[in-house]
């Protein structure tokens, strides 16, 4: 409700409708087009046949099921081969899930007991949906993938067309309750010009892929389910609104203005600075060499966050120092002679690594994750630092190295000593409120700080960053979060050490200006956001940023904070 008021207030200048629905803005941009909705299977209940498979047919039916699952996986693999970046990875991961022995085995077992294949598919998937939901975090996010695979396999078994997003004849805005990552990854930005979902958070897969595809996107939109296919909507990915049947002239003017702004942004080539020349590093977040090479095609000046754990999510055992050195070198070479910040493994919580030996935990987001994994297993960190040092030597590009989830000054001190022993530059991430509060004491040990606003928001607001129901709380515009950012930046300025932001907050052009006003020295964002962030920064003065920052810190809600920034920065 607060968010509704906020968006109505802040977008008053471009308010186009009496009935704007509101959600959490994820990818900026404006689209005005008719609605399409993803196709659904005609009610799984109707397809689930009753009765039992005759004993003599069971082998054949099990084989038919296996073939259907393989056909689905093969189609997903083909789509992965034709996609790039995160989209390709998501499609590949969904294909892998389609051939996962655990759920396939559960379904086959049922078929061999006489359960018809469609019913066995539905039951086996539901068993794993329950298990994943209980596990929470990233596993819970995979529920959408599992249900997506279920529907595709059932359609294959029933001889029905594959469910999913239809290919529209005219550019359209896609509205859905939630989208399977495989569907989002396959979207054509020329035909799907906007995207809004009822569920999903700002860091969900849908959001990440929409950002990569640069499709204006709003998630967690209340009331979206009532908007029928065919209705015309004006979607504003900056303000976070979906206006149903808006005044046509006003809507077209809003689209034209957004296009003009995007064209102006596209001509920005860096380096990052305000219009009056205050330098702010504009950097890219990457997860491997391929992403780093893609980032090099943007005006990003370097890499502000290399999420190393994402290289090893499927690794069965700890990669050797040599193997790690090869992977890190790939990124260091892509940005040869330029700044690269490598983050040591942020294993645990929603990103468990098989070789990290995670304990069973009731509350993994508050458990042994990030730097804490090395407390009982120091070799993991030592080996990684050895791999990074080897990569630095091989490439001649010496990275800065930072630890995730630091909570105390002692942790920072120990980490810094280890990093320095390898001749590397140490820093830490500020993601835990205690670390922001003690940033001055942490800075006695390290050379730089980088604020992870995704986790800082999660822990400050006591709200799971994966929960769509809590998306308005994990909004980085929350003034409580921004006050901690301000404290951290001030501590860095006092001792002349850099303080960057590498969470999703840095990908929001308006918020990037506010962060600059708070004293942040570099902004690291997804490659797709780099140009928009740099261009916005280049259009405002440092004084405007500082005024916006001051105004934002005086507000009491994320809604008010956005409105205050818009008023100061336009
Ligand atoms: C963050 O928490 O803001 C961050 C950058 O780390 P991650 O999103 O990988 O947890
Ligand atoms: Mg984090």
TrEMBL record:
Organism taxonomic ancestry: Bacteria, Bacillati, Actinomycetota, Actinomycetes, Mycobacteriales
Family (UniProt): Belongs to the PEP-utilizing enzyme family.
Xref: PROSITE patterns: PEP_ENZYMES_2, PEP_ENZYMES_PHOS_SITE
Domain of life: Bacteria
Active-site residues per Swiss-Prot or TrEMBL entry: 205 (tele-phosphohistidine intermediate), 502 (proton donor)
The protein's name in its UniProt record: Phosphoenolpyruvate-protein phosphotransferase
Cofactor(s) annotated in UniProt: Mg(2+)
Residues that bind Mg(2+): 431, 455
Recorded GO CC terms: cytoplasm
EC number, UniProt record: 2.7.3.9
Residue span, PEP-utilising enzyme mobile domain: 171-240
Keyword Kinase among UniProt keywords: yes
Keywords for the protein's UniProt record, in alphabetical order: Cytoplasm, Kinase, Magnesium, Metal-binding, Phosphotransferase system, Pyruvate, Sugar transport, Transferase, Transport
Function (record text): General (non sugar-specific) component of the phosphoenolpyruvate-dependent sugar phosphotransferase system (sugar PTS). This major carbohydrate active-transport system catalyzes the phosphorylation of incoming sugar substrates concomitantly with their translocation across the cell membrane. Enzyme I transfers the phosphoryl group from phosphoenolpyruvate (PEP) to the phosphoryl carrier protein (HPr).
Subcellular location: Cytoplasm
Ranges for domain Phosphotransferase system enzyme I N-terminal: 22-142
Binding site for phosphoenolpyruvate: 307, 343, 454-455, 465
The UniProt record lists the keyword Cytoplasm: yes
Catalysed reactions, as listed in the record: L-histidyl-[protein] + phosphoenolpyruvate = N(pros)-phospho-L-histidyl-[protein] + pyruvate
A single MF term (Gene Ontology): phosphoenolpyruvate-protein phosphotransferase activity
GO biological process terms held by the UniProt record: phosphoenolpyruvate-dependent sugar phosphotransferase system
Broad class of the protein's primary localization: cytoplasm
